[in-house]
Amino acid sequence: MLITVSGPPGSGTSTIADRLAAQLGYEHVSGGDIFRTLAAEHGMSLSGFNELAEEDDAIDRDLDRRLRETAAERENVVLESRLAGWMAGEHADLRIWLDAPIDVRAERIAEREEKTPEQAHTETEEREASERARYAEYYGIDFTDLSIYDLAVNTARWDEDGVLDLVVNAVDAYDPNTDEGASAVEGVAYEF
């Protein structure tokens, strides 16, 4: 089974994907880990590589190509990244979207990155605007379109264990033999 976990920064995607994979005995493949691997392959620091990625679309495209290949080639994987649901496309069995209000996400980011909530809020809004524009330009993806996801969870409503329970219950209840139709991922230009 291939499960994708996506959501904006601070929504808990890495935490939940990691815990979900551990509970299911699946491999957890993270877009962040792939990005760090790409930085190492280029002999660059993470911050330097991130700056380069803002200017060079080949970096985003290489990351997204690797996500797509992972989805097509592997089984028993929890694939986690902002675009995992879109990049996995027809290969995903279940697509999960995690989100929380921007103020909650900014608080979480501020705590983990040791910055002020105001700074995290501003940086997060700028990052999301940049990503929305890039995804639309590169692939024709409307990042605000959640219709491809099977489950969307506001992670501010439950604690970490509660969110994990919701996700695990959805996975456990999924039966491919009675599945009457996954949400189609259409109109994406997979041009890497």
Structure, described:
By secondary structure, the protein is of the alpha/beta class. It has a single domain, classed as Rossmann fold, CATH 3.40.50. Helix content is 54%, strand content 12%. It has eight helices and five strands; from the N terminus they run βαβαααβαβααβα. It has helices at residues 13-24, 31-41, 46-55, 57-73, 84-88, 102-113, 117-139, 160-173; strands at residues 2-6, 27-30, 77-80, 94-99, 151-154. A five-stranded parallel β-sheet has the order 2-3-1-4-5, with helices on both faces. Helix 2 (31-41) crosses helix 3. The longest helix has 23 residues, at 117-139.
In short:
It is built from 8 helices and 5 strands. The chain is an alpha/beta fold and 192 residues long. It is globular, with a radius of gyration of 16 Å.
Largest sheet: 5 strands, parallel
Using the CA coordinates, give the radius of gyration.
16 Å
Tell me, rounded to a whole number, the average pLDDT: 93
State the helicity in percent bands: 40-55%
Number of strands: 5
CATH uppermost class: Alpha Beta
Spans of at least 5 consecutive residues whose pLDDT stays below 50 are none
- Oligomer state of the chains in this structure: single chain
Within the largest sheet, what's the order of strands? 2-3-1-4-5
CATH superfamily: P-loop containing nucleotide triphosphate hydrolases
In one word, what is the shape? globular
**Class computed from helices, strands and strand pairing:** alpha/beta
Q: What is the ordering of alpha helices and beta strands?
A: EHEHHHEHEHHEH
CATH architecture: 3-Layer(aba) Sandwich
Number of helices: 8
Number of domains: 1
Find the CATH topology.
Rossmann fold
**Strand fraction:** 5-15%
Q: Kindly, what is the distance between the CA atoms of the first and last residues, rounded to a whole number of angstroms?
A: 25 Å
